[in-house]
Amino acid sequence: MKRNRLGDRVLHLYTWLIIVWLSAPIAVMILFGFNDKKSKSNTSWQGFTLRWYQELFSISDLSTALINSLVIAVASTLVTAVIGTMLGLALGRFRFRGKGITNFLVFVAISTPELVMGSSLLSLFVSANMPRDSFTIIIAHVLFSLSFVTVTVRARVVTLDPSLEEAARDLGASAWGTFRQVTLPAIMPGVAAGAMLAFALSVDDYVVTSFVNGSTITFPLWIVGSVKTGIPPQVNVMGTLIFGVGVLIAVANFVAARRRRT
After folding, report:
1. What is the pLDDT of residues 61-77, one digit of tens each?
2. Topology of the domain covering 60-231
C-alpha cells in the first residue's frame, strides 16, 4: 500500500511538472503583454502597464498580418469542416471500393512533415503558374488540416447507433431530413472539435505558409520576421487574446457537452 501511494504521489507530481512546463511559455507571453517596455528589448521586466492593450493596433503591418491570419483561418476552416465531415461520414459509415487506400492516405497526410508538404505544394503551384497569395495559403491549410477533421468526425461516426437513423427513415423522414435532424446533431461534437483544431492549425502555421504565401504576410510570418528588430509587446497582447478566445470556446464546448449528457 505504501509503495502504491508513493507511486501515485510521484505520478501526480510528474504530471503537474509537465503541466507547469507546458504552461510556462503561455504565462510569460501573458505577463509580458503588461510589460512597460522602455527600451528596444522586451525580454526583461520593466514595469506594469496597460498601454499595449490601448495601442493594440498601432502597428499597421502587424494588424494586417493578424487580419490575414484570421481571414485565412476562417475560410480554410469552413472548407475543411464541410469536406472533412463528408469524408469522415463516408469512411465511418459506408463500404466502398478504395476505402482502405483512402484511410491510408488520410493518415499519411497527418504524418507527412510540414517541410515536405510545403515544398511539394510550392512545386505544384509553380508548375501550374498559380500566383502565390492568400488563395494558395487557404488551399495549403485545407490540405494539411483536412485529415485531422476527417479522423475526428470518423471517430464520432463509428460510435453512433444506426438504429436511430433507421427509426427516422421508418417514420417517414427523407435521407436529407434524417441527416439534418438525426445524424448531424449526433456528430456535431466531432465536427466542432475538428473545426477548432483546423482553425488552430491554420492560425499558428509557419512552415507550410512560408512556402506558398507569396507577398501575403500572416501573423506567424510577421513575428519571425521581426525577431531581428525586436518583437513588440503588441504581439504578446494579440497572442494573449487569441489564447483567451480559444479557452472560452473550449470551456463553452465542454459546458454544452455536459448539458447534452444530462
Report:
1. 999 999 999 999 999 99
2. MetI-like fold (1.10.3720)
